[in-house]
Amino acid sequence: MTLTCLLVCADAEAVQVLKSVLQELGIEVEYCADPAAAQMRIDAAAFDVLLFDCQHEASALQLIARGRRSATNGPAIIIAMVNLRNQVRDVFTSGANFVLYKPISRERAASALSAVRDLVQRERRAHARIPLPVRASIDYAGTEEVSAELSDLSETGIGFHSSRQVPPSCKVYFQFSVPGNDKLVRLSGEAMWQDATGRVGLRLVHVPQTSRRILEDWLRTALPAAKPVSAPPVPEIMIEREPSSETVGADLPPGLGLIPASRADRRVRSRESCCLGAEVYRVNSNVPHRCNLTDVSAGGCYVETTGPYPVGTLVEIVVWAQGLKFTIAGTVHTSNAGFGMGVQFALRTDDERKHVDHLMECVLAESKLTP
Description:
alpha+beta; 6-stranded antiparallel beta barrel; 18 strands
C-alpha cells in the first residue's frame, strides 16, 4: 500500500524540495498552504505522515494537536519544520514526533524522510493492534495503584496513557477487565517508549495462563468487529543541542529530533531498577521464598514472585549484591497475584539503614557497569 503525506507549508522553495524528495521515496503528497483547509483534510482523510511548517507557530501547534487527537490520524507520524525562533519543546508537547530544522536542504530532507518512511513501513509490518479503551490499575518502580487508560493491545505489546512519566525500561504491572468479562487480567511488561503527550508503549513480558485465556477469548470476539489501529511511531531521544546560527545550513544532523524527556522531568528516581537474587522469609519462619528484586529504594523494594504474600505480612529479605549479603526487614505493602509484591522497609536501627544505603550503592554501581 502506498504511503501518504499531508504537507502544510506556505514556503514555495521548501515545498518544492520536500515534494520532490517525498515522491522519490514513493510517498504520495497532498499539498495544502492554508491551515483552515488543512484542518478539514486532517478530519476527513487518513495520512501516514503529517508535515507541518511552524513559520506561524500558533496555527502550526493547533494543527499538530488536532492531528494527534484525530480519530483518523492519531497514529500518524507528525514532523514539524522549525527554525531557531520556534519553541521546540512546545512543538513536541503538542504531539510532534520529529523536527526538521530549516533551511531545508535536499540532502538532509532526503536522509530524514527516508528514515521516517522506513519507520512507517516497519510499523505496518508489526502485529495488528486492537483498540482496548478500558481503565487499568498499574504499579511500577516507586508508583503503586495508579489509574491509567489502556488504548490498544497486540500479541506482543500494549499501549496506554499515563499522567506520570514512567521510568525508562522499567517493569509495569497491570490489572484490568476486558469488556464482557468481570475477571481481572493481570500482566506485566517493559516500558519501551513514551512521548510528551503521555502515550506509553509496553512490550509484554509475562502473561499468566488465566489472563491469557481471558484475552484470547476476548480477542476472538473483538477481532471480527474491531478495526485494527496502526502502532504509533516509536519515539527515541531528542538531540538536546539545537543548531546555532553558525551551524544552520552547515553540517547538521539529519534534521530529526525525537520526543524528549525534558530536563524538568529528569528527576532523580525514587527507585533504581535491578535484578538481584533474593530470599524472602515470613517473620518467625525458616522457609525461604526464592525470588528476584527488580527495583529498590531507600524506603522499599519490589519483589518479583508468582506467589506473593498478602498485604501486611511481616517479612525478612535476604539479598546478595557484589558478593555481599544484606538482610532487611519489612512489611508487604502491595501484592500482585502472579507477579510480585511491594515491600516497605522497617528500618529501626542505624545498622539497618546502613545496610540499605550500601545495597543502593551496589545497585547504582551495577547499573553504571551495564551497557
